[in-house]
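Quick one, tokens below:
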């Protein structure tokens, strides 16, 4: 009788353990949900014709499995066309990337033309899973300027940062300010103040990178940008690299 009771108790404990694990898995699954505005609804994109968005996503997943990164740079074309892996034929700052980041096992999760909601999709589809990063940087928001309100951008960034932290809870997080952009100077200055406040609210590091690249009230310094007034040139990346690197040491 006592033996039967012990077996029954063991069975109950086993079932309870399984039930807790199932509940835990359900909780994790429920955590990755969509919000109610465009910047919080994960979606793919195919706006940049220079590369295949889906193919780059698969390259990232393969590289992460083959050589798990220690440092992750998340962003749009400004990050994508800097340097590192996955390798892209268009690289505007490979010299500074290699000098400051190559030895740090950095993975480039920059995707040209990505908006906040596109990064959210990538986070939900494995790009931060299966490894433990020591540092994560996020440079995001400029591609939302033409299509999103300031409130949507800030809400989307908060939603995205929380998602990233769920997938990489141990990583040190650096939130980089939106870089200067032609015709958006005043708006970016206002947004960056709100991004600074958001970083404090979420207890992440804020990197005011825009200050090093701007002149005359927030205008892109033409010596540090390509002709489009959006993307840093080789000299611009040379200014950014040591600043960001200082947060990785």
């Amino acid at each position: 009788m006592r033996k039967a009771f012990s077996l029954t108790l063991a069975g109950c404990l086993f079932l309870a353990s399984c039930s807790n694990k199932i509940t835990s898995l359900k909780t994790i699954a429920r955590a990755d949900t969509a919000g109610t505005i465009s910047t919080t609804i994960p979606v793919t994109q195919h706006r940049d014709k220079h590369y295949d968005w889906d193919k780059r996503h698969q390259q990232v997943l393969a590289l992460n499995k083959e050589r798990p990164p220690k440092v992750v740079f998340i962003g749009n074309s400004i990050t994508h066309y800097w340097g590192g892996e996955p390798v892209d034929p268009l690289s505007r700052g490979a010299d500074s990337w290699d000098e400051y980041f190559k030895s740090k096992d950095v993975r480039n999760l920059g995707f040209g033309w990505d908006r906040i909601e596109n990064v959210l999709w990538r986070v939900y589809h494995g790009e931060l899973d299966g490894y433990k990063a020591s540092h994560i940087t996020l440079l995001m928001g400029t591609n939302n300027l033409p299509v999103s309100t300031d409130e949507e951008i800030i809400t989307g960034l908060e939603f995205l940062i929380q998602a990233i932290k769920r997938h990489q809870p141990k990583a040190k997080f650096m939130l980089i300010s939106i870089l200067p952009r032609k015709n958006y100077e005043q708006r970016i200055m206002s947004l960056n103040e709100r991004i600074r406040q958001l970083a404090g609210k979420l207890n992440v590091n804020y990197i005011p990178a825009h200050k090093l690249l701007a002149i005359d009230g927030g205008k892109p310094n033409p010596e540090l940008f390509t002709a489009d007034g959006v993307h840093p040139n080789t000299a611009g990346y040379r200014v950014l690299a040591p600043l960001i690197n200082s947060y990785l040491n």
